[in-house]
User: Fold this.
Amino acid sequence: TLYMEFFKSYGADVHFYIPDRMKEGYSLNEGAIQKAWTDKISLIITADCGTSSVGSVKVAQGLGIDVIVTDHHEPPEILPEAYALLNPNRHDSMYPFRGLTGVGVAFKLVQAISKMIAVRNNLTSDFCHLSSNIDISSYLDLVALGTIADVAPLTGENRYFVKTGLRLLTEEKRIGISALKEASGIAGGEVNVGSVGFMLAPRINATGRLASAGSAVKMLTTEDREEAMAIATYLDRTNQERQKIEAKIKDEVRELVLKDYDSGNIKVIVLASKDWHQGVIGIVASKIVDEFYRPCILIHLQEDGIGKGSARSIPGFNIFEGLDNCKELLDRFGGHKYAAGLTIKESNIPMLRENLSAYITEMLREEDFIPEIKMDAEIGLEEISFPLLKELTLLPPYGVSNPEPVIFTKGLSISEPKVVGKDHLKIKVKKGRTFLDGIGFSMASSYNNLIKSSDNFDVAYTPELNFWKGTYGIQLKLKDLKNSKQ
Assistant:
């Protein structure tokens, strides 16, 4: 969407092509190049892909099509000989910030082009027909969407992109964003990292997982309110369908893990099935990693014996490097530290599981398989105040590499535990004369019995402002709790 809007603003004849996830995969492919040649395209600019597309770039060049690769994924040893290859993670890159996402790299390209045009307009009349008055900061709503959706580190440039972009998303200046917020049930509301990650981005992504991603581009670029609303409603329905498919696969995967794996000895989860939808196995893999805290690869098996897989990992293990160590077993692979995609013959899957497990055993310690909560401060409950919360408002946006602060308080009494919603734990905590409410999302089934057994707890939490029935109050968002040591 960013590229489309930018180049159209300069009068370029521009088209977009998003590969079919199931039939073509994620990246540049020869079928797409042949279509571009038929359509008399002279330049292809990739977005969020292409770093590994050595053969495809060569095909394009043979047809007289220039290729500019813009990407952020980990590069292979041999790079495609494109007209240009922009990737902050190139081994020879001098760029000071490697955390850019695909849309972040795209924004840097249009930023550079805008600057070049502005400079040349001042030096010569050759570019006078090109306007240099385009405010490229208006694209930061798109950059924020993509940066959050790709779970990128919210530090460096990304912090600025997201903080500025969230304000634009809240203002709803883009018709498609306004429609998407309405379909998501947050019309007119403030947009934060959570609402992008759990409300907006899943709906944008769902159509690409189950059908064609082109409809999301049309929604974000249209100037027609009715068209935008129709597409947003379609995306919402598609997302609901995605959730049902995902839940079914997750239940099957959990059953297999619990049945066939000894959680004490397993180092990696590698499972495959012909019945799993290729478009959602990446999401399921992420949830399995969250629950079992092991790297996970889920593979959709095709009728021809080829498997298309999605890999996710834990903080201590670089899954891209792990796959690179097993590359002789793979037809293709690509990705980055925490997420990757792969193509593999069904017959090689057992060996992949065995080799990857051995590699992980060699690289990690036993404690690397234990989830950690890193706490920022131990303070008394009486110190949690409105002035403290005001200071904490300087720290967002929170996300990878900039997590929300976690505070630790010992020896709290807990009362009135109850389950709210599906599995959320609501409690009251007390120390001396100080009482505060606490909410633990998805914690009721794990902690309710523990709370009933004792009233003296050490609690890890993030304090936050809560608005309820017209009144502001302080609430503790629970991270973990345990019986205090006597």
Notes: Confidence is low (pLDDT under 50) at residues 125-130. The first helix runs from residue 2 to 9. The longest strand covers residues 407-420.
